[in-house]
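User:
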Amino acid sequence: METAPKLGRDVPPKKDKLQAKRKKPRERKNPESQRSLSGAQDPFPGPAPVPVDVVQKFCRIDKSKKLPRCRSKTRNRLKVAETEEEETSVTAARSELLLAEEPGFLEGEDGEDTAKILQADIVEAVDIASAAKHFDLNLRQFGPYRVNYSRTGRHLAFGGRRGHVAALDWVTKKLMCEINVMEAVRDIRFLHSEALLAVAQNRWLYIYDNQGIELHCIRRCDRVTRLEFLPFHFLLATASETGFLTYLDVSVGKIVAALNARAGRLDVMTQNPYNAVIHLGHSNGTVSLWSPAVKEPLVKILCHRGGVRAVAVDSTGTYMATSGLDHQLKIFDLRGTYQPLRARTLPQGAGHLAFSQRGLLAAGMGDVVNIWAGHGKASLPSLEQPYLTHRLSGPVHGLQFCPFEDVLGLGHSGGITSMLVPGSAEPNFDGLESNPYRSRKQRQEWEVKALLEKVPAELICLDPRALAEVDVISLEQKKKERIERLGYDPEAKTPFQPKPKQKGRSSTASLVKRKRKVMDKEHRDKVRQSLEQQQQQQEQQQQQQHKQEKAKPMRARPSALDRFVR
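Assistant: Predicted structure:
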């Protein structure tokens, strides 16, 4: 006769609910076993290898620095971030193969000097679309001119000393606006988009739209000589005759900072595209670096024996080129040393300097423009032999390389000249950041996104990477001060976790009460130990004082000759 199975012996144990819900992991098939439809085996299985130097170009994490001492959870997050950064850099290196455009170049035949090649020869050799980018605007009546390209490189704005202001799409030659302000124009700048123009007129600063309509007159910025716009901070920096450097936030219309350089009239100004630091050139031969968060210059560099005439910084923020009244052209290293790397004496001092996106250096000396080239992007330009030379119909008054186009815009007393410079610009652009072909709707969406991602002015510093680092010294100092204040280290031991009890004794109030009881007990023990240590130290000090008093010899009877003893 069969008997029923007893509980706990013959009955199989029940599976845990979590264990029952788990699914078996899928077995990954061996890539070698996978074959194509034809049945042939792939001779190169897996993803294609990527060169290490190409991956290193896109890597943003410095692996030479060890991870700081922190909690395991924070350390795991940092490791995950490093892994994601490695995957992103590999993906970017793979996508580089898809870039259709390559940088241009200019080579002479059989050792021919490229500086002797004329613009007419280059126009004849290139295609029709590139040849149309070279043009001359004869505007002698209102010159000399200052020029400025938009961030996308599609639009050109220029202002003449006699009040002529115009903006156009220089690729299609379509005029956007043209006005005469009936006042001297000292400088002109596009703001965050081509829809707004900042014009430094004889007395005040004015803002115009792309139709030439005056929108604002900023009277707090008076007698402005130079303008610079910081696109990621929405700041318009102005240098004036009175020696003040003013930062205007164009997103809210407020002046963020007004700094007195204490160096007289400010005629030379440029920005560092890498860290948004403003460089000012002074008449005593120094160049000072400024941030709106600090009232004093971050760095002062003695560059020339005479006054500084022009300053330019390359796109990577590595090199700074300066020219002075001593006819010297120097290139300085901005990576902490601030020492001159190369120098050259020019027959005539350079009044204007500009760096291109790929590191070419242009210098305007009277009516002659010389361009020096290096061996690639972010390389030091060679000042021995010029890459190109061009003579204008009048003295140069302003020059700038066009972004994403091998073009150098020149403003002079005779008008505007667009000069072809092969290999000067970056051939590929980021469509989400600076798209020359964007529509009006895309521009509006980009403006909203840029405003949401605006960087505060207080974060402008020499090394922007320092903002992402952990200040270990300050953390250790705070921890030390906290230990001294409490008398013990609260993070030395893991906090007490009470075990749950049955019959309603594990309520929240009882758990908190038990935790507090244990913490008070530990605190009393630690305070008692610290008091005992203090008592022991006091006793030791008293014993030492007592020994010193005993060790002193007994003084004899005082004498009248003791006054001479020292």
